[in-house]
Amino acid sequence: MTMTKQLTLKEKWLQDRPFLEEIARFHEVIETILDQVPFKVEKMKNLDAAKDEFNRGIPVLKCEHVTVPIFEQACQALKALTSLADYKEVPEPFRASCSSLGKVMEQDEAFIRAVIHSLMNEDYQTLGEIIEKHQLNEGIIWFLGWTALSYVLQPHLSELQQWERQQSWNREYCPTCGALPNMAQLKRSNKGRKRHLICGCCRSQWLYKRMGCPYCKNEDPNLLRIMEINEEEDIRVDVCNSCNSYIKVYTNKGEEEAALLDWMTLHLDLLLKERGYVKMGTHLINI
Question: What GO biological process term is on the record, naming one (predicted)?
């Protein structure tokens, strides 16, 4: 008797979109590397002590009165990711940049901590100075740094998001790290479908008003429109003709594991770019 392999959600998604196979192999290597990084998940402390700061609009990772214990783990993860230089599945320019990054880390012990600290605190001026000093690729440092941070933050996200919802965060930027969203999902509720934004860096989710551009706050219905994609039954694109931006929206449920990963819909970013729209959400992969 022949046994049929049960495809995972990601495998099914990729089977229907074979043009994503190359970038999928790249992300599989990243997952393999990060899964081998040993780190202990420490309990968060004093979340409630951050209420005043948080309610003033300060994201959790930047609140002075709470510590999310991910800094050391993120440094370990970022260091591990330099081994991407050793994998043939990784594009050659990326491998070369990872090799250069690894050498810098060996020569400058403070470098890796400075990168993670700058990303967590949105100190992009310092980050730019560090990158320029060592003549590294800014896009790759950004990608690797946030890939590391997002990975070590995942065990804390459920607790963080539950607390953030209790505080009724309703701003357009991420309540956890402060980045702008790059995707959204419509979720059913007793009062109809509600829009949840998804962070482009740490993958946090938060409730946001159904109508309106999360980038320029435009609410003029004459300047907002929905773009349906023939090839993507459960993904639509909300565009804003005020700031010329767009956000990809997953309109179903059950395939979040694949549908809410930005790189799984890169073909839509290319399509929108051809049509003159700008990807304004914070994202790790430049198109």
Answer: protein maturation
Domain edges within the chain: 18-165, 170-274
Average pLDDT over residues 3-32: 87
Which pLDDT tens digit goes with each residue over 257-271? 999 999 999 999 999
Average pLDDT, the chain: 93
- Run of H or E residues at 100: helix 92-107
Within a 10 A sphere around the Cβ of 59, how many other Cβ atoms? Answer: 24
Class of domain 170-274: alpha beta
Instruction: Give dist(CA 212, CA 228) in Å, integer.
Output: 18
- Provide the β-strand partners of residue 278: 245
Report pLDDT for 2: 45
| Sheet bearing 245-250, strands edge to edge | 205-208, 192-199, 181-189, 245-250, 232-240, 224-229
Assess contact for 181 and 169: CB atoms under 8 A. no
Whole-number Å distance between alpha carbons of 73 and 146: 12
**CA neighbours within 13 Å on the CB side: how many for 153?**
23
The residue-averaged pLDDT of 175-188 equals: 96
> Looking at residue 261, what DSSP letter applies?
S
pLDDT of residue 37: 92
User: For the CA atoms of 157, 94, 15, 154, what is the dihedral angle to 10 degrees?
Assistant: -10
Q: What is the pLDDT of residues 112-155, one digit of tens each?
A: 999 999 999 999 899 999 999 999 999 999 999 999 999 999 99
